[in-house]
Amino acid sequence: RKEVEQDPGPFNVPEGATVAFNCTYSNSASQSFFWYRQDCRKEPKLLMSVYSSGNEDGRFTAQLNRASQYISLLIRDSKLSDSATYLCVVNAGNEKLTFGTGTRLTIIP
Amino acid sequence: EAGVAQSPRYKIIEKRQSVAFWCNPISGHATLYWYQQILGQGPKLLIQFQNNGVVDDSQLPKDRFSAERLKGVDSTLKIQPAKLEDSAVYLCASTPGGRPVTLHFGNGTRLTVT
Fold first, then answer.
1. Separation CA B103–CA A49 (nearest Å)
2. Which residues on chain B are in Cβ contact (under 8 Å) with A32?
3. Which residue of chain B is at minimal alpha-carbon distance from A95?
4. With b meaning 16 or more CB within 10 Å and e meaning fewer, what string describes A39-51?
5. Which burial class, exposed, middle or buried, applies to B29 when counting CB atoms under 10 A from its CB (0-12, 13-18, 19+)?
6. DSSP assignment of chain B
7. pLDDT digits 0-9 by tens, B50-91
8. Chain A residue numbers touching B59 (CB-CB < 8 A)
9. How big is the CA angle at B27 (ends B72 and B80), to the nearest 5 degrees?
10. Are A48 and A59 spatial neighbours (Cβ–Cβ below 8 Å)?
11. Do A44 and B33 touch (CB under 8 A)?
């Protein structure tokens, strides 16, 4: 089983819609969790951290379910500029960060 | 604050040749990472340094890949000899420490092996 698994998509979603991604991780001792965004031919950049209580940043909501070992990202009122690949990242400890394969999102006008 | 610097941006070599990549992390960042990102996949950790010591190199193909960070600042990653499947973007990242861990990536080096 992969350490971090994501549905690679692609997700093609109309502008203004809500879209959700899930990610599962295998190491129950994992300490912290993140979503990174990667634009085409660019480097990944931190989108948001994921906290146990769930957290929101504008149109973006991230949630963590430790019991089921998955994290999620919800994007509301999607914009054309949200088109990117979304990478799930897990810190298994010792600052070792493992990436999922990424979920490709395209927002359609 | 200057970002993570990597060079070269692009490199094309033939299989069985050697290649080296260079990375200069953000000043003061103790932890440095090299990731390999094959087209259509997520970044795969090759090696992680804490200052000049190796924290994790479990996924580094040590028969052909080597990396060093001699003075705990900049780092080089070498491939010798290269294979076709080494074609990828090699990303260097650094973190300032503390919580949460935030990776700062360089622009990457795009390697094509023909």
1. 12
2. 99-101
3. B101
4. eeeebbebbbbbe
5. middle
6. ----EEE-SEEEE-TT--EEEEEE--TT--EEEEEEE-TTS--EEEEEEETTEEEE-TTS-TTTEEEE-TTSS-EEEEESS--GGG-EEEEEEEE-SSSS---EE---EEEEE-
7. 988 999 999 999 999 999 998 889 999 999 999 999 999 999
8. none
9. 45
10. no
11. no
- Which tokens go with A52? 């146990």
Which pLDDT score, from 0 to 100, does residue A9 have? 85
Closest CA to B10 of B114, B79, B108, B91: B108
Question: Chain B contacts of A8, Cβ < 8 Å?
Answer: 40
Model confidence at A95: pLDDT above 90 = no
Residue type, B84: L
